[in-house]
Each structure stands twice: as structure tokens, then as C-alpha cells.
Design a protein that fits this description.
Elements lengths: L1 H10 L11 E6 L6 H12 L3 E7 L1 H13 L4 H6 L3 E5 H8 E2 L2 E2 L1 H14 L6 E6 L1 H7 L3 H16 L3 E8 L8 H10 L3 E3 L4 H5 L9 H78 L5 H28 L2 H5 L2 H16 L2 E5 L9 H22 L3 E8 L3 E8 L6 H5 L4 H12 L3 E6 L5 E8 L7
Parallel strand pairs: 1-7, 1-8, 2-3, 2-6, 6-7, 9-10
Antiparallel strand pairs: 4-5, 10-11, 11-13, 12-13
Amino acid sequence: MPKRRGAGRKKSTSRKPFVTRAYTVQLYDDDRFPADSLAAFLWEGSRGRGGVSLILTAEHARAVNRSLRRLGVDPVRLARRRRLLLLDADEALELFMTRGRPDPRRFEQEICDRISAVIPPRGRGYAVGEMVARLAAAGNLGGALALESLWSSYVAASPLTLRCLYPISLLARPGFARTFHRVMSAHDNVVPVLDNARESTAAPDSVDTDRWIARLQQQTQALKEEVKRRKAAELAAAASRRQLRSLGRHLVAVGEEERTRMSRRIHDELGQSLAALRMDLDRLRRRLRAEDEDPQERLVEMMAVVEHLTTRVQRIAIDLRPAMLDDLGLAAAVDWLARDFQGRTGIVCNARVPSHAFPLDRDRATAVYRVLQEALSNVERHARATSVEVVLTQSTVGVDLVVRDDGVGITGRQARSAASLGLTGMRERAQSMGGRLGVTGSSGRGTTVRLHLSRRAKALS
């Protein structure tokens, strides 16, 4: 019985444990740092077999130390007993941050090992820190989330109760709302904003937090409204992009129809008229007597002009809409375009196309042809190439076009530049068909354009 009464006295305490959860978010007003509540939390660690760690700014650390002294805890004595770790938050970040991200190994060595060193055997550690908040305040949200993940892993595997401090003003920062929700999901509990005047006169286990919980709920509701507004704006922007893409596709289709109509009219009307005029001039030349040299020379000159106009009309008609694309199919049109490019520019152009029929709808065939046309035009104007290779392949999933030259090569910056209107048009044409286009190159090694169109994918609307 005495032993049992002693065991009962050992279990009973004058205070209930202040913290029952291992990983907690502590919110606070910027002008009301919760030094007293943090000191009460750390007071648990200073009793019995506990270790205390402070990773705060110098100003906040001094405030917590003053509050600890008011509770009868001597930080100097704790440090001498190797049960207190005190680190400046900004200086601690420099120990393990690399290129804006925490290095896991250095974090373990510089932070975790030091915290573990002040926790007695079979004891528990109590720590407060604001390194994550310092990263978030500096705009490094990615680094803040990565550090939160490291803290979470350490707390899960260690006898440590940790409080991460966040000023409430961070919640109003653009882009932080979603990040803070992810931060809260990594913690076991959220302590609302507390009033210093209230917390200094109340025991740690008897603080009435209803008012501050309501305030936190209001802040959370405001965050939800902000997220809702931003999602609505994103949806509106996405709808606008779809409408613009649909309009662009419609304009392309209308342009192709107009090109086809003009090509046929030029071929049928101007071409036939020029052909009839040439025949009449040839017939007139034969009727003139051989001794009339001046009229003969004049007629020859006129026929040459007519011949030139006929060639130009044919070229314009083909550029507007090659009849063979509709009559013979994509493979024949690509092969002809490559041979025509070589004849006009003197640049060797080797084309490899399927020998059999190419079952592709009119819109996709037109898209492939126009991309090849623009790619060869870029080679002629910019590449200073001596040869070009064109490869057209088909498979069960779609069609692929590769245009590769041996010119000066395009840089990544040039390929992404908004001023490259030709490349932008090629990309938009590919995207409007549900495909993708890539442009790669390096200095002195030429440029490669790759286009893939799915045979079954619907055009984007």
C-alpha cells in the first residue's frame, strides 16, 4: 500500500501537461509576440527530464528568456546543464540552406543533432522555432515547404514537441494562403492568436481560447474566400484562352478556305487567260513574214513576259493552296515542296516520305504542310544551311514531321522569344490540332523542328 500511494503521488502533478501534440503551429500578431505562452510551454521542458531549444530571432529569444525568468527558470543554469540550445534563426538557416533549399544532411547535422544533444536519455525535448516563417517572409515559399517536411520527419522520429511560429500578417501575403494550408496539414494542431495581456495573467492550462479560435476561423474564412476568388479568376482566364484558341483555329480555317478559293480563281481565270494570250501571240508570230524582224523581236519579248507572268501566277496559286495536297495527298505534297525548295534556293533538301497512301484528314494534312512550309522558309532566311533533311512518318497513333538543317543553329532564348512570330504560329497551329511542336538547336550544329499530331485527337477548342 505505501508503494501504491507513492506511485499515486508520482502520477499526480500540480499542473496538467501544457502540450499534448508533438507538432504545432503558433500564430501571433506582429506587435504582440507570445513570449509568455511560449515560456509556459518551455517551462514543461525545464522540469524533470526535458531539454529546451530556442531557434528564434535575437529579439524574440530575449523576450522568451525574460518570460522564463519570471516563471522561475534560469536559462543560464539550463545551458550549463546542457539542457538548453539557443540559436539565431537567420544564422541557423545559413548553416544548411543551399540555393534556396534546405540540404537534408546538413539540416540533420547542424539542427537535429544539436537539438537531440540537449534532450536527456529517456527524456523529451521542447522546442520553438521560426526558421520556416523567416523563409516565407522572404518569399521563399518552396524552401519553407521543404523545411516543413524535414521538421515533420524529425519530429515523427524523435521525442520532441515542436512549435513553429508564424506572424498572422503572413496570411495576407499574395500566394501564401495555399502554402499555409499545406503547412497546417503537416502539423498536429494550430494554436490561435493569443493576447499578451490575457496570457500573462492566465495559467497555461486554463487559457480561454474561444475568442481567438473565432478569430482564427474568421481568418481561415477570409483565406477560403481569397482562394475561391483566385480559382474563379483562373477558370475565367482558362475559358478566355480556350475562346482565343477557338477563334484562332476558326481564323486559320477561314484563311485556308479563302486561300483555296483564291488559288482556284487565279489558276482558272488568270492562268487560262494568260495561256490563251500566249497562244494568240505565238499564232501571230507565225503569220508575220520572216523579213519583218522588228515585230518578230517584239513578239518574242512579249511572249517571254507572258511566260514569266504564267509562272508567277502558278507560284502564287501553289503558295495559296497546293492543288496536289487535296488531289494527291500529304506525302506527295511534302515531296514536291522539298524538291521545289531545293530548286529555288540551291540548298540540298532530302525528303523521306511514306510510299503508300497517307490517311489523314484535311485539317491535319494542312497543318503539317504549313509547318513544313514555315520551317523551310526559316531555313532559307536565317539558317545559312547547306542541306536540310525532311522526314515524314506515320504510325497507328499519329503523324510525325522532322525538319533538320546543318545551319548556324537556334538558341533556346530565340526559340522561346515572343518575337519569333513564325515559331509562335507553328506552335499555335500544332496546339489547335491537339499536337505538339518542339524546336531545338545549338550553335554551329543546326536546328531541328519536330511536330507530332495525333491521328485521333480532337482539335482544341
